Amino acid sequence: MRLLIIGALEGQLSQASKMAMDGGAKVAHAATIEIALASLRSGKGADLLLVDVMVDIPALIAALDAERIAIPVVACGTETNAAAAVNAIRAGAKEYIPLPPDAELIAAVIAAVARESSDFLYRDPAMAKVVKLADQIAGSDASVLITGESGTGKEIMAKYLHARSKRANRPFISINCAAIPEHLLESELFGHEKGAFTGAVARRVGKFEEANGGTLLLDEISEMDFRLQAKLLRAIQERVIDRVGGTKPVPVNIRILATSNRELATEVKEGRFREDLLFRLNVVNLKLPPLRDRPGDIVALSDHFVARYSAANGLSQRILSQAAREELLRAPWQGNVRELENTLHRAVLLSSGDVIEPDAIRMPDGTGLSDAVASHSLASQAAAAADAVARSMVGRTVADVERDLIIDTLGHCLGNRTHAANILGISIRTLRNKLNQYADEGVDIPAPGSDFGLAPNKRYSAA
């Protein structure tokens, strides 16, 4: 995590920031906006800007936008600077931290804004297989595609690979392709030259150059615009990039990691992702299983999160009851590890004692975990029934399916031809022609005003 402090707050914020990140934060300082921008352009990037509210934050954010630099801004100031704090938020700052700084508050804000996490915990054999493969290929320079549902820990796996690679002591740079607007992403990746577009007041180094010698993570790469994918393919193949507005290729030496929560083979078939780019990225595929398929990890992660948030909130150490553990194991966890973490954070806060019981484990809307399990069960049953209906049509002709649909609809309408035609979206004349055809073929036709189900063997005319 790289933090850049802007303004006269270095003494107050530097130590608190390092404490907040357990010493894992790299903190730099810039006295003015101009110095900060020069640092960012030169490739000394940052994951988060902590800015004194007395600095002209609207001007800073306007300058970042003009130069296509996408970095979250957090304003910091004394509690008496209420008006300045409001102006900073209105200008585009993500959060406001009052001073003197509190390390726990800074940690929470950093986690929320920058989504930084370094925890990697697993116990389940399904995850152990993936980690074993990761260990085998971590030391190579091969591109790796990390796939899985949202919240399974794809970015954490990318950091795990980097930490065990030959490039571990070099930069690890991450860029979220889904979070940056299309018109900013190219400059964010490749940088730009002075005068390349309105607002480009100086040369700016992009993420590829920032990561030179290290690892570049392209997070949610499936969200990248199709046209930009061609430029990315060249950069990966040739190991050179072209800054926006540049005339001279810039060589880079990086390892590429990419993540996606979509099935990229399907994206290729539907024309949203380049097949040649997929081949370049997918030298090795690490597919992270969803949490519901890793029950051993649910228990281990639950204990970990309970311990973490008990300490973070200054509470005595909480533990999960056996009943609570069993309920956690039954839950579907559609949001995977991220959903589990948020749920247990709430449970720690809602628990009335040191032992967390099932009634403290609630969803964001206040419903209990058992309600979520029941809802998921009903949804699964409905999906299974729909799938069974779809499968029952396989191998049948369109004419057969159409006939059964018409007869069933007519029976549902108690033989009323007009109502059936309206439901089917066809004219009454077409319906009658179809019914006459079926009658000639020996098919039973519901009579008007009758319940067809009571006389399944009786034949009627189409009129």
UniProtKB/TrEMBL annotation:
Domain Response regulatory: 2-114
UniProt KW Transmembrane keyword: no
Coiled-coil portions: none
Residues the record lists as 4-aspartylphosphate modifications: D52
InterPro entries named among the record's database cross-references: AAA+_ATPase, AAA_lid_NorR, CheY-like_superfamily, Homeodomain-like_sf, HTH_Fis, P-loop_NTPase, Sig_transdc_resp-reg_receiver, Sigma_54_int
TM helices/strands, residue ranges: none
Superkingdom: Bacteria
Keyword Transcription regulation attributed: yes
Residue ranges of every copy of the Sigma-54 factor interaction domain listed in the record: 120-349
Alphabetically ordered keywords of this record: Activator, ATP-binding, DNA-binding, Nucleotide-binding, Phosphoprotein, Transcription, Transcription regulation, Two-component regulatory system
PANTHER family: TRANSCRIPTIONAL REGULATORY PROTEIN, TRANSCRIPTIONAL REGULATORY PROTEIN FLGR
Protein name, UniProt field: Sigma-54 dependent transcriptional regulator
The species this protein was found in: Pelagibacterium nitratireducens
